[in-house]
Every structure is written in C-alpha cells, then in structure tokens.
C-alpha cells in the first residue's frame, strides 16, 4: 500500500491525517496516510528513512518547510516563489519533487466562498512565511491593488522587492490608504489573541475578512474585530487547510477529491472537540 504522512514538530494536533482519510475513502485510493514527528535538526534523516520504508509523499508543516525546500531536487514555480515546500513527492526515478499548495488552497477557498480577488483592493497583514506563500497566487488573480502591512516594516518592504506589483508599509501607513475590499490576516497574532493595529475605517462596506489561522469555532480575534468594524463576510482558514490538502492529494494520486464534503465533516469534528 502506498504510504504518505504529514511531517512536523509538534504533529499530534495535525488535522491532515483526518482530511486525507476522507479523501482516500471518497476516491477509493489504495493508500495510507499517517503523522510523523520529526526531531528538530533531523529532517533529512527522517525523510530518508520514510522513503527507504516505501514512502511516496509527505506533507510538511512547521518548522520544516524551508528544510523541505532544500531537500527537493525539482521545485515547482509556486514552491520557488513561496520559498517553502509543503508537499514532497518521491518519484519512481528516485527524484524528489517539492511543491507548495498553500497558496492554491487559499485561492480555491476564497473562490469557494464567493470572494473573488480580480479588481479588488487587497490588504495582507504579516510578512512571514504564511504571507509570502499567498502573495504570488493573489497577484495572479489580478487585484486592483495589493498592500502588505507588517509590524517590522523592513520585512514587508523586502516582500515588495521580491514581488513586483505589491505595495508595502507599516500599520501606521494604512492611515494614508483608501479602504480595502479584502483583508487577509497572515500574522501569527491570532495564536496569542493579538489583532494587528488597524485603523477603524480600513474596510469598504461589506468587505471580506479572512484569517489564515483556523479555530474550532471558526472565529478568531481578528475576525471578531473585522465584524465589529463592518466586514460583511468573515472566514477562518480551515477551508484553506482542506484546499491545500486537496491539491497535494491531486499531485500524488492524480485525482481531485471534493473539498466541501471534507470541510463540513472537519468543522463538525472540531466543534465537537474531537
Ligand atoms: P508564519 O510562518 O506563520 O508566517 P512567521 O514567519 O514567524 O510565521 O511570521 C509571523 C508574522 O506575524 C510576522 O509578520 C509577524 O510580524 P513581525 O515580522 O513584525 O514579527 C506577525 N506577528 C506576530 N505577532 C504579531 C502581533 N502581535 N501583532 C502584529 N503582527 C504580529
């Protein structure tokens, strides 16, 4: 049976095994998908061992996405622009393909929700790995304007250098910007209950607010803030998680499962606390 897993540290909390189990059942694929705890500093050794035991592919999560980037022999364009790999495929000829499906999963989820980027003014908060992974996919959707705001301004400016067409600055600079139609929280602030310091009038009427983080309730402090300040629609990042998993599954197995079904089941699982 073909073996796959999600690799990270920590890994116990990962929902990927549950998602891929649903995909496997739906598409009747002969495969198994587990969770692999990788000791820090032991990435290459752990992956080598998994391959030697017949592993066909891995999802890579925190903190190993840059290690996976270096491990791959062949990188997809989207992995190269993201500077990180979340999916490895071990090819039959012995080569290792590195891909990044996070951005595609994010755009697929926005579209699923009915939020279309073309012609919109988009604000991305944060300039770490999560932000970097979604910028090129966002630009490809042809927004009217894309601004990256970050606490450490130099990191936002570095991303603007890397991706022509992006504007960047501090949260303070947002006071000089017109309101935005789509706000994306790519900071890790929601983990600690911190909302980026946004001006109160930053949104157009009925703007979209999306948090890349997900929670059991579907709410985050940022989404609550956005709703209080006039957002029309809000969403956490659970759909993005399912979207990136769907894209990895397609890369490995050549079939594309239905994200809606898995998302609904996963949300119910989270709400039930399991
Ligand atoms: P990730 O891989 O999740 O992107 P990261 O690379 O550590 O993680 O980046 C975290 C991002 O969240 C950064 O943009 C960080 O801002 P700084 O670059 O200024 O550190 C942002 N962030 C974290 N906590 C924040 C907070 N309380 N307020 C605003 N931004 C925050």
- CATH superfamily label of the largest domain: NAD(P)-binding Rossmann-like Domain
CATH topology of the largest domain: Rossmann fold
What compounds sit in this structure? Answer: 2'-monophosphoadenosine-5'-diphosphate
Q: Would you tell me the structural class of the helices and strands?
A: alpha/beta
- Major beta-sheet overview: 6 strands, mixed
Q: Give the count of helical stretches.
A: 10
Number of domains: 2
The N- and C-terminal alpha carbons lie at a distance of: 27 Å
CATH architecture identity of the largest domain: 3-Layer(aba) Sandwich
Widest sheet: strand ordering: 2-1-3-5-6-4
Strand proportion? 15-25%
Q: Could you walk me through the main structural features you see in this protein, from its secondary elements to its overall organization?
A:
- The protein is an alpha/beta fold and 274 residues long.
- It folds into two domains: 2-100 and 241-272, Rossmann fold (3-Layer(aba) Sandwich); 103-236, NAD(P)-binding Rossmann-like Domain (Rossmann fold).
- Helix content is 39%, strand content 22%.
- The chain is built from ten helices and twelve strands.
- The chain has helices at residues 16-27, 43-52, 65-71, 77-82, 102-113, 129-140, 153-162, 221-228, 238-253, 259-271, and strands at residues 2-8, 31-37, 55-60, 74-75, 87-90, 96-99, 121-125, 145-149, 167-169, 180-185, 203-211, 233-235.
- The strands form two sheets. The chain has a six-stranded mixed beta sheet with strand order 2-1-3-5-6-4, with helices on both faces.
- β1 (2-8), α1 and β2 form a beta-alpha-beta unit.
- α5 (102-113) packs across α6 (129-140) and α9 packs across α10 (259-271).
- The radius of gyration is 19 Å and the shape is globular.
- It starts with a strand and ends with a helix.
- The mean pLDDT is 97.
- The site of 2'-monophosphoadenosine-5'-diphosphate (ATR) has 15 residues, from α6.
């Amino acid at each position: 049976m073909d073996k796959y897993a999600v690799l990270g540290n920590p890994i116990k909390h990962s929902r990927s095994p549950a998602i891929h189990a649903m995909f496997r059942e739906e598409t009747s694929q002969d495969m198994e998908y587990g969770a692999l705890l990788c000791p820090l500093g032991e990435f290459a050794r752990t992956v080598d061992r998994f391959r030697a035991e017949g592993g066909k592919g891995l999802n890579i999560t925190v903190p190993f996405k840059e290690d996976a980037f270096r491990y791959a022999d062949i990188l997809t364009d989207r992995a190269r622009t993201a500077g990180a790999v979340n999916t490895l495929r071990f090819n039959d000829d012995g080569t290792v393909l590195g891909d990044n499906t996070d951005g595609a999963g994010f755009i697929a989820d926005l579209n699923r929700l009915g939020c279309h980027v073309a012609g919109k003014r988009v604000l991305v908060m944060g300039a770490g790995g999560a932000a970097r992974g979604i910028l090129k996919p966002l630009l490809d959707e042809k927004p009217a304007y894309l601004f990256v705001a970050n606490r450490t301004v130099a990191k936002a400016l570095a991303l603007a250098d890397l991706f022509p067409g992006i504007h960047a600055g501090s949260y303070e600079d947002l006071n000089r910007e017109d309101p935005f139609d789509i706000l994306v929280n790519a900071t890790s602030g929601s983990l600690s209950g911190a909302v980026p310091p946004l001006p109160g009038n930053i949104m157009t009427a009925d703007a979209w607010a999306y948090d890349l983080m997900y929670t059991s309730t579907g709410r985050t402090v940022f989404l609550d803030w956005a709703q209080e300040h006039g957002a029309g629609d809000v969403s956490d990042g659970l759909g993005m998680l399912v979207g990136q998993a769907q894209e990895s599954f397609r890369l490995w197995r050549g079939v594309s499962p239905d994200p809606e079904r898995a998302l609904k089941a996963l949300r119910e699982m989270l709400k039930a606390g399991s």
